[in-house]
Amino acid sequence: MNEKGKIRVFTGEGKGKTTAALGLAWQAVGRGKRVLMIQFLKAPETSGEHFAAASMSPMITIKPMGRRGFILRRHWKPLDMVMAEFALSEARSAMLSGDYDMIILDEINVAIYLDLIDVEDLLLLIDSKPESLELILTGRYAAPAVMARADSVVEMRKIKHHFDKGVAAREGIEY
Hints:
This protein is of the alpha/beta class. The chain has a single domain, classed as 3-Layer(aba) Sandwich (Rossmann fold). The chain is built from six helices and six strands. It is globular, with a radius of gyration of 15 Å.
């Protein structure tokens, strides 16, 4: 990318944060840009985007770096913190490598909310972003300091969702 890269945040209680980030990724790939998505709280081969990205390699790479299952705020395991810190380290290395035009840190806002990563560590990463890199941060509970650093913040707000009626997530649609 020749122009200055932006910092974008997709946050809020509504669905579609990762999907919005992937939409930007597909646009970038369609224009010959290289994209990396690091998923802080998702395990390998648990979402449809993992399989789609494999068919578009090496233009888009998705690295799921979490474990299977949900992590609750007061019940995370020390391994969850180690995995999140390793994912942040991977993000930093990839960002500084110059190999990517866009990096998506999927669910990083939740990792901070869960205290798996210190917000100051993310702010340092943001401050060291190469000028041309597009950096996208997703997940509920975006910290005010992160939103202040962003060029664009979109809050997804749920008005109505079929999950509220007990409908389970569907393979190929919601994951």
